[in-house]
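At this stage, I needed to go through a protein sequence along with its fold in token form, as given directly below:
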Amino acid sequence: MDATTSGTPTIQYLNIPDQPITALVVSPIPNFQKRHCYGESVPGEFPLAFNPSIVLHVLTECNLDPQDLAKLEATCSFFRNPANFAPDYELSISELAALDMCRKRAIFRPMTGEEQMILKEKCGGSWKLVLRFLLAGEACCRREKAHAIAGPGHSIAVTSKGAVYSFGSNSSGQLGHGNTEEEWRPRLIRSLQGIRIIHAAAGAGRTMLISDAGRVYSFGKDSFGEAEYGGQGAKLVTTPQLVESLKDIFVVQAAIGNFFTAVLSREGRVYTFSWGNDGKLGHHTEPNDLEPRPLLGALENIPVVQIAAGYCYLLALACQPSGMSVYSVGCGLGGKLGHGSRTDEKYPRLIEQFQTLNLQPMVVAAGAWHAAVVGQDGRVCTWGWGRYGCLGHGNEDCESVPKVVEALGNIKAVHVATGDYTTFVVSEDGGVYSFGCGESSSLGHNTVADAQGNRHANVLSPELVTSLKQVNERVVQISLTNSIYWNAHTFALTDSGKLFAFGAGDKGQLGIELVANQTERVNPEWVNIDLT
């Protein structure tokens, strides 16, 4: 059974012997201006090397990022030279601090020593690079943090403690409660008691959950590769069931597209189910194939930190020593693969435009027919089919390579979400901007009705969602429906753990009761659920 121990485990500091604090006290201290890491024989110096265990403790507890640790090594030999600590006497203080911070991560702790070393080599031979890989994955997917998923007609909410609530459409048992009845209020999936869930994914009629032990549970339609408009699989699964074919893979993320499903292992390897009968994903399988197939080609030896699935394509955010990069594979219609053409790709191919733009991708999002990326510098790029203005460039043109959204030039973006011709961007200060198709009120703009009584105006350029500003909460995550067959709804999660919903709610997917004859909510409304 998966780990459920609450609280933060005691951090082990590599058996570094404690030294008395009195050892740091020297003779009366004159007012010296000069200080060195190693110190000399001059009284008043503070010799870091005299008690490096304290320095290591400080570096680890301050949670310095890998770049800061690398800068310490570059500027001071004390942080660069071997620290002579067990178990690896050749590691520097900075490398030891990175290793200790890696050991805090839930997906790293269970790894054997051999598995850890394999991951280290795959990331580039440094614990600082392993730490960057782990942190990048956590930032992209809110792994081990509360998050909500606005699926096609149904919704999933995961608390910070790993409990799961579901609500909305349930025709295929995708809510996991052992029946096929709709739920209009968030309901706890009680069969998961004792299992801590760290990630969720929702597709049409199906749900996938991933535990902190890397196990995958699925329910709803039993086919991983079934088109969402097609018939149902051989049977319906109405309670979470362990996916046996993935039991030997420690999974950290899942992405459900149309015709296929993809999962990501903790080592950064991508596996796909189905949609391979014509070699579309580099392998040949049948639509009902339940066996995971490793994604072949360029990403076989490059660790991936995030995957995102669109209607018939897959994006992968890769982490290399030289920096972050994005690969795409699948259907190229509309230019959504980002290579300057509309041709299909059977194997992952690097999107080179980010190098031209001098942009380090940090988060990727795959909509039904368009895609988006947030860069480390806060710039946002979009590409693909531009219908309804979903690319945010002020028109409905297609873009076959990533293009910077100039209208967002005055903000620093930290998060992006895409759906069926809709896009949301969250800024560093918690501001939310949306653009694209206004159907189902899923953009959050309280527009004035036109002469025909239509309130669902399309938005061609980013507009601030003022209704979310009025809730006086800082938004950290947006999730919206990514399906061309369902009316869309949207979730906004705040840093205090509050969840707000708006858009289509005809199946109960908003988690709030609607008044008679009402099918949607224009303004964000608080969902009565505690995600902390």
